[in-house]
């Protein structure tokens, strides 16, 4: 059992017994006076509610509320308490499918914000874009709404509808979306003229590393001479999978370092002998977390050129710690790029900044065209 779980257990024990046991006394003797006073305040509040509230309230309800309040007091949108339902949905999502409308949301400047839509999903097809602000969900204001509550409200049974009130610039519009079972295909790719391999990563789930290597080897066998890696609107995911992807581009050495609260540093490395092909990486404001790990490592090691617009800026690491049938997703570390850059709240500036817009022929992807121009110049 982890130290954190032991501490939570002690608090619950003390609360349940109101310090009438030797265990509670031992707890008080082994924490600082400030911590003891705060714990006594918590227990006093619990005692008042249990004895004086107009209706009987189950202890489990009160404890769940206390845990949510503790995690919420951190002021970190990436640290949340997951009840059993949300935890189950989260685990399904990392395994490759989940129910909803296909948008990844986060909190930026205290506003519920679309990090990225997932390709081919109801949110994407409706025209929702990264950076859109979600003002309301089914008419309920999202101001001060916890991230997990917002996620719960957006998700729902397949075939049901949800109305999102979206603000983009000065325009506010309601989007009525029909929920569906979101099947995430994280990797797609093809060979472009001139034997330029194009690989698109939608997100990083537990299959991404293996699927990416398979697509990479497929293009390599077909005579690939250069690579364009598309990480636009990739909201991230599993750190381990991002290291696997980076290992095909970043020369031998650090990919990312994870720094814990106590200063302990864990560095993930690449074993690639040398960069094999010219590489361009497409990024934008929807490129976050694990995709920023890949982009930052490629930029720092000069293994390739980043093209597009500034990334989202999520440079923290979360872990899941089970509590009964739920879990706490808690920020436990920050990550640093190979040059020891922290990009949290800052993002990564691409080497070549180019806004995406329709230019000339309808549908022209000028960011992709620039990336192709760059890798061809290095052949």
Automatic annotation (TrEMBL):
Top-level lineage group: Bacteria
Source organism per UniProt: Dendrosporobacter quercicolus
Transmembrane portions of the chain: 7-29
Keywords linked to the UniProt accession: Hydrolase, Membrane, Protease, Serine protease, Transmembrane, Transmembrane helix
SUPFAM superfamilies registered for this protein in UniProt: ClpP/crotonase (SSF52096), PDZ domain-like (SSF50156)
Coiled-coil segments: none
Protein name listed in UniProt: Carboxyl-terminal processing protease
Family listed: Belongs to the peptidase S41A family.
An annotated Gene Ontology molecular function: endopeptidase activity
Domain PDZ, residue spans: 91-169
Pfam family membership, one: PDZ_6
Phylogenetic lineage: Bacteria, Bacillati, Bacillota, Negativicutes, Selenomonadales
BP GO annotations: proteolysis; signal transduction
Entry's Gene Ontology cellular component terms: outer membrane-bounded periplasmic space
């Amino acid at each position: 059992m982890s130290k954190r779980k032991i501490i939570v257990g002690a608090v619950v024990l003390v609360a349940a017994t109101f310090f009438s046991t030797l265990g509670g006394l031992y707890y008080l003797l082994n924490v600082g006076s400030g911590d003891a006073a705060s714990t006594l305040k918590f227990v006093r509040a619990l005692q008042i509610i249990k004895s004086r509230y107009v209706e009987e309230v189950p202890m489990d309800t009160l404890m769940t509320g206390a845990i949510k309040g503790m995690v919420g007091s951190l002021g970190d949108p990436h640290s949340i308490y997951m009840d059993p339902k949300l935890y189950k949905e989260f685990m399904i999502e990392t395994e490759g499918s989940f129910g909803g409308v296909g948008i990844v949301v986060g909190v930026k400047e205290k506003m519920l914000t679309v990090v990225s839509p997932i390709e081919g999903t109801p949110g994407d097809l409706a025209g929702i874009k990264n950076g859109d602000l979600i003002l309301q969900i089914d008419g309920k204001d999202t101001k001060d709404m916890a991230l997990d509550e917002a996620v719960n409200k957006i998700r729902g049974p397949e075939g049901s509808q949800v109305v999102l009130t979206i603000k983009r610039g000065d325009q506010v519009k309601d989007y009525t979306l029909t929920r569906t079972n979101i099947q995430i295909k994280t990797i797609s790719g093809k060979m472009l003229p001139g034997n330029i391999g194009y690989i698109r990563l939608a997100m990083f789930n537990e299959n991404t590393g293996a699927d990416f290597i398979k697509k990479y080897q497929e293009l390599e066998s077909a005579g690939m001479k250069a690579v364009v890696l598309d990480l636009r609107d990739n909201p991230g995911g599993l750190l381990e999978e991002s290291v696997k992807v980076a290992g095909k581009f970043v020369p031998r050495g650090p990919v990312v370092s994870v720094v814990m609260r106590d200063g302990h540093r864990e560095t993930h490395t690449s074993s690639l002998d040398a960069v094999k092909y010219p590489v361009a990486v497409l990024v934008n404001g929807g490129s976050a977390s694990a995709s920023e790990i890949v982009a930052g490592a490629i930029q720092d090691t000069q293994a390739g050129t980043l093209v597009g617009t500034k990334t989202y800026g999520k440079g923290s690491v979360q872990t899941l710690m089970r509590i009964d049938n739920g879990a706490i997703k808690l920020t436990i570390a920050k990550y640093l790029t190979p040059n020891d850059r922290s990009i949290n709240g800052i993002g990564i500036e691409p080497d070549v900044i180019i806004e995406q817009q329709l230019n000339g022929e309808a549908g022209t992807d000028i960011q992709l065209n620039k990336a192709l121009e760059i890798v061809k110049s290095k052949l």
